[in-house]
Design a protein that fits this description.
mainly alpha, 4 helices, 129 residues
Length: 129
């Protein structure tokens, strides 16, 4: 294959808070520009609606900071993987079978009785050491 290279580093999603911040700042700048443009064009209804949209955007950004930002500083992907492996043989297997059965449409026959045959139950990250 051409133009394929092996990554030498893994950021584990640590750039997402920065990317989200820059996108929200760009949206806020665009909305402030539109408020000024609507003001120059003598469109007070559009200007007021854009001010309300600006408030909603800032509120959404604060909600995302409260809800998602602590995840990036408290739990790395490796910790989540280790926690998932610890829970692999616990009581979650019983719940997983119940969930699979609960969401299976009644008109579809059961195709496999064990979870080991499915690749969807394999861990996403493999141990490299």
């Amino acid at each position: 294959m051409l133009d394929v290279y092996e990554t030498t580093y893994e950021t584990c999603g640590q750039y997402w808070p920065h990317i989200h911040h820059h996108v929200v700042v760009a949206i806020i700048i665009m909305q402030i520009t539109m408020i000024g443009l609507f003001g120059l064009k003598s469109k007070p209804a559009a200007s007021i609606a854009t001010i309300l949209l600006l408030v909603v955007t800032v509120a959404y950004n604060e909600y995302c900071k409260i809800r998602f930002l602590p995840t990036f500083y408290t739990c790395s992907v490796q910790d989540a993987k280790d926690s998932d492996e610890l829970d692999k043989d616990g009581e979650s297997d019983l719940y997983r079978e119940r969930e699979i059965e609960a969401y299976r449409p009644p008109y579809l026959p059961r195709t496999c009785d064990t979870l080991e045959e499915s690749t969807s139950t394999q861990p996403l990250l493999l141990a490299t050491s």
